[in-house]
Amino acid sequence: MTSEPRGGFEVDEISDCDVETVVSLWRSSGLVRPWNDPYQDIHNARSTPTATILVVRPGARGDTDALRTPVGSVMAGFDGHRGWLYYLAVDEPARGAGLGRMLVVAAEAWLAAQGAEKAQLMVREANAAVQGFYTALGYSDAECVVLGRRLA
Ligand SMILES: CC(C)(COP(=O)(O)OP(=O)(O)OC[C@H]1O[C@@H](n2cnc3c(N)ncnc32)[C@H](O)[C@@H]1OP(=O)(O)O)[C@@H](O)C(=O)NCCC(=O)NCCS
Q1: For ligand 1, atom 31, which residue shows the shortest CA distance?
Q2: Is residue 4, in this structure, part of any structural domain at all?
Q3: How far apart (Å, rounded) are the C-alpha atoms in residues 116 and 113?
Q4: Cα Rg for the chain, rounded, in angstroms?
Q5: Is residue 2 part of a domain?
Q6: Measured in angstroms, how far is the CA atom of residue 100 from the centroid of ligand 1?
Q7: What is the CATH number of the domain that holds 29?
Q8: Which three-class secondary structure state does DSSP give residue 97?
Q9: Ligand 1, CB within 6 Å, residue ranges
């Protein structure tokens, strides 16, 4: 899956050489919690046919890997009923230029191709500032309480 280049950036699937950059991005964006192993999360998503990790990168195909270093990421997964988004992040200097939107639009298209009719995501209470971003993209509060229990 590769999007049409837009504004010098394009979205495609994460590759092996992107993993360190993406983990650093998640850490610097405050998305990794002590109980998350980001490498395992990346491995699990890449091993599951109904999940993916998309990255947005500058440059054009054929440029060196260094020029194509990702500046944003999103994880998407279809659970058979709904599509979920996780780990959306854009590197701080690259924010405000439409790349977060580009990633969400690409993830939505990927989920729709999987058969998902609705995309949703969880926002940590401490990250209320990001809600305006999702509102700008047409997301609204699902008025649900999310419950969880660790299985491993
Ligand atoms: C959330 C995040 C990915 C947004 O990326 P971005 O590239 O800066 O977003 P965009 O430039 O694509 O913004 C898209 C729209 O949202 C708006 N927007 C962005 N951040 C916003 C905010 N905090 N509040 C209100 N609106 C916001 C933009 O103005 C833009 O609106 P427009 O298209 O009508 O002009 C980025 O801020 C980030 O990485 N945050 C840290 C990680 C994080 O919190 N991830 C979400 C976890 S749930």
Answers
A1: 136
A2: no
A3: 7
A4: 15
A5: no
A6: 6
A7: 3.40.630.30
A8: coil
A9: 29, 31, 88-90, 95-101, 121, 123, 127, 129-130, 132-133, 136
pLDDT at 64: 83
d(CA 53, CA 77): 9
The residue contributing the CA closest to ligand 1 atom 9 is 100
Number of domains the chain is built from: 1
Q: Is residue 34 part of a domain?
A: yes
Domain that holds residue 89: 9-136
Tokens, residue 47: 């091993």
pLDDT at residue 1, as a whole number: 67
For residue 90, the ligand 1 atom closest to its alpha carbon is: 39
pLDDT means over runs of 10, the chain (152 residues): 76 97 98 96 98 94 84 98 98 97 98 98 94 98 95 89
Within a domain: 147: no
Contact 26, 20 (CB under 8 A): no
